[in-house]
Amino acid sequence: MRLFLLCFLCALLALAARANDRDLSASDQRKQLQHEKFLQEHPGSAAAHASYAEFLSKHNNLRAAIAHWRTAQQLAPENAAIANSLGGAYLRMGKAAASAAEFARAIGLEGSNAAYHFNLANVEFMLRHDLTAAWKMELPDVLRLALAEFREAARLSPNDLEYARAYAETFYGIPDANWSEAEAAWKHVLTLSPQGDFVYLHLTRVSLKQGDAAGARQFLAKIVDARHDGLKRKLQAQADRL
Predict the structure, then answer these.
(1) How far is it, in rounded angstroms, from Cα 142 to Cα 164?
(2) Fewer Cβ atoms within 10 Å of its own Cβ: the N or the C terminal residue of the chain?
(3) Which pLDDT belongs to residue 190?
(4) What SS3 class is residue 78?
(5) What ranges make up the beta strands (E) of 59-118?
(6) Same structural domain, 131 and 168
(7) Are residues 98 and 174 in the same domain?
(8) Is residue 186 part of a domain?
(9) Are 181 and 151 in contact (CB under 8 A)?
């Protein structure tokens, strides 16, 4: 009975996927038919559903892709990659709560994967206004969740500049941010980034947040690109007022 239902579901999903057939090249239409034929022969294969979902997602047929990923998830509920893919698809559709839930599920299944933490953090940061309503939380609390996930991503993958910078930048959105922690985060970015002046500007800002005029001046002195002279003067003036 279960096999019959899976076959029936595959047929329905194939019809949904065909809605975008006219947008596919002849080569891609052949690939689509190959996916569908394989699924007809192996309706209980989570890998087959996930593979077809990737194909559909690539061609912007997100609704059909999500349907296949959800089927794959039912067949392989412990597969973190499937949950992560679903999170990405929901994010592309602007479904903040559903996206966050799937990324959180991926983390629960494979917590050592830095990318899953980074993906959840991005949803919590970029779609924070949607999540405040969905989760009935205050905006700063959602941003603290994002900060924690960015921190974990940076910890798990310490040589990734994108993770390190995202973590450091998120402190600016926190009303009661730990600025000494932010300084440590930006100093870590400095070890990874070729844009030293950019990081020194942020370290100056963080020093000012801490009321450390001497530290701000030390970082300002390290900035050499003349294009930053105007901003340097403004930051110097802030340091002088402390």
Answers:
(1) 19
(2) N
(3) 98
(4) coil
(5) none
(6) yes
(7) yes
(8) no
(9) no
